[in-house]
Amino acid sequence: MTKDHIGGLFFLFVGFWVFSHAVKLPLGKLSEPGPALFPLSLSILLSIMGILIFVSGNGKTKIDWRTDFRKMAKALAIIMITLAFIILMGRLGYLLTSFLYLFSLFFFVCRFRLFVAVILSGILAAGSWYIFGNILGIQLPRGPWNL
Amino acid sequence: MEVFSNLIGGFQTALSLQNIYLCVIGCLWGSMVGVLPGIGPLAGISLLIPVTYGMDVTGAIIMLSGIYYGAMYGGSTTSILMNIPGESASIVTCLDGYQMTRKGRAGAALFIAAWGSWVGGTLSIVGIMFLAPVLANVAMKFGPAEMFALLLIAFFILGSLGTGSFIKTMAMVILGLLLGTVGMDSLTGTLRFTFGIHDLYDGIGFVPVAMGAFGFGEILSATEENMVREVYKPRLRELFPTRTELRASLAPILRGSVIGFFIGLLPGSAHILSSFVSYITEKRLAKNPEEFGTGRIEGVAGPETANNAATGGAMIPFLALGIPTGPAMAVMMIALLIHGVRPGPLFIAEQPQIFWALIASMYIGNIILLALNLPLVGLFVSLLRIPFQVLFPVILLICLVGTYSINMSSFELLVLLGSGILGYFFRKLDYDLAPFILALIIGPTLEETFRQSLMRSGGSFSIFWERPISLTLITFSFLLLIWNIYRSVRDREKVARTDEF
């Protein structure tokens, strides 16, 4: 698989998926075009682009999956930690969640020492809570103890 | 002379204490986001949008535009001192700027970059003053067919400016257009691709998409690279260039102003392109082009002037036609829409006080930036010394809070994360993200004008070539399409020939 193969397959998949949903919308007529006309035409165009990109990938350098996955480890960790932040913020409130978020990034992703990670996360979480919540007046979610 | 009386009125508004204060805040914040690699004007503007909620619209636009052009000033500092572009428009400044630093001429490079930025920025404002009202007057005669044709041109120009192949760029454009169809259809009220999710009824917010694809995705990509940096700190007495350096930079600054201003009018990453075009021009005109890349002052003066002049150029289609030419302009547009102001042909005619106050504030902001940037080099260097491992979690948190604060919606945080993942993978697959974002923003208008045109003509496509303006624009867009296809085929053949050797 080359980069263009992956890109081509992605566009082809999205094109087909959009087409399968767009056909259910009213198409209208030329003098009164319906909501399906635009997405339907675009999905066909995207599928054609997908095929062209896939074909253009033939003969190009293949992806080294092992090296690539090793490189992606940090990014994947950040994605998972961010997802946890989004899920937890409504329940635990901004202050606690942002502390946990920063701590996880400093300790697990950046490999800071436990003590340093706790101190940094504490200062930055409290600082951001004060700046965003108090100075800028953003209504941040509150959790236990109204924090 | 109407222009000058309007400008005087603009200065009266812009010179109020509150507006000067907001202009300084915008310029300083812009310089800082420009200095810090990983945060660009897009994130800088997005983060301050919630702060503008309580302000009047004039103050808000003065501050937000200050961030936009301030970032161009700041970007050069990191390029010159660290060989890392603080802002994407300063990539080319690294080539000679960092070499000047290694030769002990960092101060001179910073001075010329700031001076050139001021000249380029100021001349481009003169251009906005005279061109934007004229263009807006012409655009007032536009019907949906003309507007559709104009947007079509924007897309094909985007296709030709993308860094990858034409097909890849157009695939990204179509993907952005498709994402723009999510939500309630503006003409019939039909829900499209919402799957019962209420948060999608108003469509996908492009601030979370833009911040995710650019800000979040950028950080994810950066974690794969080496995070250790070396920063050089120049002393203030080294800041002044020699007479030879001043003389050598004069012509590149003037040429950079013209190049930057006109390229700024084009959609896409105009400020990046303008700096590259300026660098190539200076290299071609030089007596010893082989010396470029070894620390030539012309290699700093031209590009840094051009990227600032491009910010002014980009304001023209944005203010006069309502077409954001880049992601940062798009976020500016959202900020104005939040305040109930829609940039476009009617904007200058109906709200001249805001337009002229903005123009006046840009003159003031450029002077503020020139006066502040050099004395603040020490502060910027200290900022750059903060390790990336400390900086990136904070940037991520700011992206999350900035997105949340727009609608207090956790769903938009998911959109941010999803766009970040998409941006990260597209970067890995060598796709350009700017066309995707711009298509998402312009897409709904493109669809609306296309369908309105057909409705007006009773289903006849002849509406696109019956009217002279529309015919000219459509012809131009087809010529662009043909040129793009030809260029794409030629490039493929060139690559195939290189592979044979």
Give the SSE order of chain B as H and E letters: HHHHHHHHEEHHHHHHHHHHHHH
Low-confidence stretches of chain A: none
Helix content of chain A: over 70%
Please state how the strands of the largest beta sheet of chain A are arranged side by side: 1-2
Number of helices of chain B: 21
Beta percentage of chain B is under 5%
- Structural class by sheet pairing and helices of chain A: mainly alpha
Helical percentage of chain B: over 70%
- Proportion of strand residues of chain A: under 5%
Give me the Rg of chain B, rounded.
22 Å
**Helical region count of chain A?**
5
Task: Give the number of domains of chain B.
Answer: 1
For the residues shown, what is the average pLDDT of chain A? 90
Radius of gyration of chain A: 24 Å
**Overall strand count of chain B:** 2
Protein chains sharing the most extensive interface: A-B, 61 and 59 residues
Overall mean confidence score, pLDDT of chain B:
84
Return the domain count of chain A: 2
Taking the alpha carbons of the first and last residues of chain A, their distance comes to 50 Å
What's the shape of chain A? flat
The biggest beta sheet of chain A, please?
A: 2 strands, antiparallel
Show the helix and strand layout.
The complex is a heterodimer of chains A (147) and B (501).
Chain A: H1 3-22, E1 28-29, E2 32-33, H2 37-56, H3 65-92, H4 94-109, H5 114-135
Antiparallel strand pairs in A: 1-2
Chain B: H1 2-14, H2 17-35, H3 41-48, H4 57-82, H5 93-102, H6 106-139, H7 144-161, H8 166-180, E1 183-184, E2 191-192, H9 206-222, H10 243-264, H11 270-285, H12 298-321, H13 327-338, H14 345-350, H15 352-373, H16 377-384, H17 388-407, H18 410-428, H19 434-456, H20 463-466, H21 468-500
Antiparallel strand pairs in B: 1-2
Short description, anyone?
The complex is a heterodimer of chains A (147) and B (501). Chain A is mainly alpha-helical and 147 residues long.
